[in-house]
């Protein structure tokens, strides 16, 4: 099954084409790396896939994500973003505890007992490779975590939703080597179990973490 399919995807700012045209597919359980030089529009592509581009940008072509025709807009995009979850390169931590941060999105889309939600949060923390480091301080403020731990916390928040697709935007670019290794270990554990589209400028990282790579060609200088 194909979870992402684009045909002729292009993004314009007025008469200026910023990205594309791009034909891209991601299959169920596949990890695909989206590479390209800085400014090639990799992050723009991720946001286009879930309808998160600003209104000043126009999208052309066809975008199908998890069966949703994103290029047509509509109310289905809000629900899509709970199944195709974008994790940015800068960890976003909400006020509150470590556990509350993992549950932040889950509480908005899943009805269940406190115990059931906590069980999903614990499972997500394990999958994100963070459980052993926070198991004894789930009620501690999330702000006490290191930057690398915060990034894995954001990954756990996404995984708690049991997403059909993870969109990862340079998830290790702001980390030191030790933290980067911890995040990469967590991402490596997702291979074959999650559908992933990883944006990275690091081609070696893409080789380590992905089944194949797609290079986004930069547009000629204007």
Overview of this protein structure:
The protein has 222 residues and is α/β, with parallel strands linked by helices. It has one domain: Rossmann fold, CATH 3.40.50. 33% of the residues lie in helices and 25% in strands. It is built from 9 helices and 9 strands. It has helices at residues 42-49, 76-80, 98-103, 106-109, 114-127, 131-134, 147-159, 177-188, 203-209, and strands spanning 2-13, 16-27, 31-35, 58-65, 68-69, 84-87, 165-169, 196-199, 212-215. Strands 6-7-8-3-9 form a 5-stranded parallel β-sheet, with helices on both faces. It has a 4-stranded antiparallel β-sheet with strand order 2-1-4-5. Strand 1 and strand 2 (16-27) form a beta hairpin. Helix 5 (114-127) crosses helix 7 and helix 7 runs parallel beside helix 8. The mean pLDDT is 90.
Question: Summary?
Answer:
This protein is of the alpha/beta class.
